[in-house]
Amino acid sequence: MDNHATQSAEKLTKEEAYFIEPFFTNLDKNVFAAKYLPSEVLGALASRYSRSKKGVRRLFFDEYIKPILEPNLEPADRKSIREAEIMRKELVSFVDYLHEHGGWEAVVNSRRARDFFARWLAAYGDDSIAQMAGAHLFLENISIVATKYLEDFRIGFAPLEKSTRYVRFDEKIGGKWIYFIEPNLAKSKYGRDYVRLLNLLFSRYSKSIEPLLKYLKRKYPQEKDQSDRAYLETMNAKTYDVLRTYLPAATFTNVGFFGVGQAFEYVITKCLASPLVELRNLAKQAQTELKKVIPSMVERATSPRGKIYQRYVQSTEKNLEKLTQKLGFRVQGSGFSELVVELVEYDFDAEVKIVAALLYKYSNLSASEIKRRVEKLTTKERLEIIKTSVDRRQVRQHRLVRAFENTYYKFDIVANLGAYRDLHRHRMLTQERQRFTTELGFDVPQDLISAKLDKAYVDAAKKIDNFYRRVSRKYPEQAQYVVMLGNRIRWYQWENLRELGWEAELRTGPQGHPDYRIVEQEKVRLVAGVHPTLISALKFVDNKSYDLARRESEKRIDKRLGLV
């Protein structure tokens, strides 16, 4: 059995490689860092990256280099032709210079400079200084499992991942579907079944695209004010949103990170302690590439200090797992659970805390004295203060003021892995998940049922459940790779009211996926049950339901493009 672990990096011609080589730490590996590129360029690339099948190096050449080398101009446009020729010469000259001189890295990465920075970090508060240097790191053809672990690191770390809504995941590379073959499972007695079942998921995902798209087009005909482009984009997005439930957590994806040195060091250190081979390998590759751009910031991840920390992480997790089982806090999965959002914890005096915090900035009294006085105010007086703080909010981007961070809510959530993958991106909160599992059942999208395409999906989900239960007894971590995005998992969110407002107002918008819109709507409903006065501050939560998430957004794009 072919035990390939990663897809190959994209192929480039010699000319293409010459023009982009100075801007990346390598051109032939799936983990690499960016060099020299301005933040604005990297931001634009990352935005396109999440909606494209292309890797970031291919995108950079196609969208930034190629238009300069091969401008698409009419022969009569002489002025533009002259300007384009000047720009092409400047590009060639700049790239030639970087190849010849090596730019600033020839200085920064010299032994003398590295020794100096290492001594500086050791002598002058290393963690503080490590927060001031950053890098862009890209990891391509890695599993969804790996991205979730990497994105757990939320402080000083900003990720952007390939979307399941805008990208089809049914392509084959080298005749193989695009997923990670977990080495421990591949070598075990479960190896052949692992490959067979994941091939089954991708095959059925692929075969369902055209019939589902055909059904959806009948159900949602093109509207008069929709261009062909907008209609096709809307229907494709709807199709991929429905069918993503098939995709296993082993699916290959791309993710880009901007992070500060301290965050990268922490990520690498923690991942080197992971029981998953993929994460350990990615950590080693990431450190190799980051040493080329911020060497002093990531060196310590594999130092004696770093190894001590890795042993601490490994032993703590192992001992807590044993204790959890010993005390009976882990039971055999029952096999099915409905979508659940439970409000587990909240502050009984939340209203007093928020109102006191709203007034604190403008008072000269102590916090304790302000709180005592607020406790004596009437409900009407408190409501007036809260309303004053939010009355001028005209759009959701007008964030609630910081005072709304003074009360917290803890939600225990059961929803499908696809919804979790989207909501996991919110970083200004504390969240923890249980392992990906099939034991809580799976969601069957209504559109699959209506299109009479659900039978194959339900059959696949049952086969995956049976396989997961066999594998997870011996390989609980590795078994996560077979879990489908349609399988339900459990996690908690602990967030303050300000972040709840930001998340709920964003994620209940009409363009949102229905699976996570329901979760956010339920969270707001639960908080309204205990704090109706405070929840009135969340003015832009949308409780309606929508058939087509992208329809209105694509119409707005049409207007900007002048297509309608």
From TrEMBL:
Gene3D superfamilies: 3.30.1360.170. The lineage of its organism: Bacteria, Candidatus Blackburniibacteriota. One of its GO terms (molecular function) is thymidylate synthase activity. SUPFAM superfamilies: Thymidylate synthase-complementing protein Thy1 (SSF69796). It comes from Candidatus Blackburnbacteria bacterium RIFCSPHIGHO2_01_FULL_43_15b. One of its GO terms (biological process) is dTMP biosynthetic process. Pfam families: Thy1. This is Thymidylate synthase complementing protein ThyX.
